[in-house]
């Protein structure tokens, strides 16, 4: 079913974005309304638009989206294509129960790709996963969501990792339907897999920079044994922030012909981090190894350091924001596709606010909430 959802959603992506596709009815045509036809009163597109607008206004749950819909004025409901009823042709917004039912049922793959950013032309895309802890229910584990984000903080897509498996099995499915030619994909050590490297370079015509840790013991041992002290290609970066002073030394070494037994590997990277806590004076030191198919002509030590840091962006600018600003880990939504679809609506809100110049998502939500029935619709481009 996931592949069907993704295939349909690609048709939607050509329409020019979430609000255009939804408002124009493209999504409804590409991914049929999941509800049974009998008893349907509210247009499918209107329900999704209401949910998206409410989340941009700061709603965190179905219980918050429902009152937003119930209190929306006629002008806002008309822009949202809400249903018309009675001789006076009044607009009526969907109830919280209707919104919950639709969000729980709608195809998660289609919704994620419809609302995601186009990675074409991006310098890099980071892949990482996060568990929605509040979605754990009884013996059912929490929903684990794997996402991809560009270096400038735009979420590309996400999917839910099936229970009883892990992120590795979903890596290719997450990226398969996107044009990644020339884009460098970064990922943590879990995804340092030979199949992933072949998929990116041979099928997607992309590049990779993958962290190497003890889950690849032989590769890690060989990288550690390289003559790093003799390397002249290096970069020093120093910064102060978050209560600490940090110095990073990035070294790069060509490994072609050294028999590392990793597909398309050209450069090995070592990043040495020195951190000093400005309050306690405690000093810590960490060494990180990575491998990439980029050549020294394509990536200097400075760029390799930037690519390595771009992997942290998805944690800081997506996962942390969804937890701290939207309270995702406290959300108890667990039925059907609810956890992943609500996360997708949060991703859409984050993308939309960043697109309009908001660097602080919490501040952007506050600004939208001051005029909750006009500003979210304006931001989403709903005419």
Distance linking N and C termini: 33 Å
H-E string: HHHHHHEEHHEEEHEHEHEEEEHHHH
Q: In one word, what is the shape?
A: elongated
Uncertain segments: 1-26
Q: Please estimate the helix content.
A: 25-40%
Helix tally? 15
Strand content: 15-25%
**Radius of gyration over alpha carbons?**
23 Å
Structural class: alpha+beta
**How does the major sheet shape up?**
9 strands, mixed
Mean pLDDT: 89
- Strand order of the main beta sheet, please? 5-4-3-6-7-11-10-9-8
- Number of β-strand runs: 11
Provide an overview of this structure.
The structure is a single chain. By secondary structure, this protein is of the alpha+beta class. Helices cover 39% and strands 21% of the residues. It has 15 helices and 11 strands. The chain has helices at residues 2-13, 18-23, 26-30, 44-56, 62-71, 74-79, 96-105, 108-115, 171-175, 194-203, 217-224, 301-324, 338-355, 361-370, 375-380; strands at 83-85, 90-92, 124-132, 143-150, 155-161, 184-187, 207-212, 234-241, 244-254, 267-277, 283-292. The strands form 2 sheets. A 9-stranded mixed β-sheet has the order 5-4-3-6-7-11-10-9-8, sandwiched between helices. Strands 1-2 form a two-stranded antiparallel sheet. Helix 10 (194-203) links the parallel strand 6 (184-187) and strand 7 (207-212). Helix 1 (2-13) packs parallel to helix 8 (108-115), helix 4 crosses helix 5 and helix 8 (108-115) runs parallel beside helix 13. The longest helix has 24 residues, at 301-324. It starts with a helix and ends with a helix. The model is unreliable at 1-26 (pLDDT under 50).
């Amino acid at each position: 079913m996931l592949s069907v959802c993704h295939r349909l959603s690609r048709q939607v992506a050509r329409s020019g974005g979430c609000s255009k596709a939804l408002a124009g009815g493209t999504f409804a045509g590409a991914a049929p309304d999941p509800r049974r036809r009998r008893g349907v009163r509210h247009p499918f597109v209107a329900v999704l638009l209401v949910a998206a607008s409410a989340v941009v206004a700061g709603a965190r749950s179905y219980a918050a989206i429902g009152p937003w819909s119930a209190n929306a004025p006629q002008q806002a409901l008309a822009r949202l294509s809400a249903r018309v009823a009675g001789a006076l042709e009044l607009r009526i917004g969907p109830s919280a129960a209707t919104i919950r039912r639709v969000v729980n049922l709608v195809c998660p793959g289609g919704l994620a790709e419809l609302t995601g950013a186009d990675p074409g032309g991006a310098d890099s895309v980071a892949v990482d996963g996060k568990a929605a802890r509040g979605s754990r229910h009884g013996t059912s584990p929490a929903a684990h969501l794997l996402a991809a984000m560009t270096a400038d903080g735009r979420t590309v897509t996400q999917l839910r990792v099936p229970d009883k498996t892990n992120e590795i099995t979903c890596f290719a499915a997450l990226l398969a339907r996107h044009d990644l030619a020339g884009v460098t994909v970064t990922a943590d050590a879990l995804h340092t897999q030979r199949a992933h490297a072949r998929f990116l370079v041979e099928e997607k015509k992309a590049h990779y920079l993958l962290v190497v840790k003890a889950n690849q013991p032989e590769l890690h041992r060989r990288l550690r044994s390289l003559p790093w002290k003799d390397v002249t290609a290096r970069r020093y970066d120093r910064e102060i922030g978050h209560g600490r002073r940090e110095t990073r030394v990035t070294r790069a070494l060509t490994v072609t012909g050294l028999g590392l037994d990793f597909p398309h590997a050209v450069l090995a990277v070592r990043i040495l981090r020195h951190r000093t806590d400005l309050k306690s004076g405690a000093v810590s030191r960490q060494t990180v190894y990575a491998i990439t198919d980029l050549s020294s002509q394509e990536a200097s030590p400075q760029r390799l350091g930037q690519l390595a840091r771009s992997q942290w962006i998805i944690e800081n600018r997506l996962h942390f924001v969804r937890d701290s600003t939207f309270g995702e880990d406290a959300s108890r939504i667990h039925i059907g596709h609810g956890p992943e679809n609500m996360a997708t609506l949060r991703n859409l809100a984050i993308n939309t606010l960043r697109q309009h110049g908001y660097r602080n998502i919490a501040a952007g939500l506050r600004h939208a909430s001051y005029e909750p029935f006009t500003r979210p619709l304006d931001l989403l481009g709903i005419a």
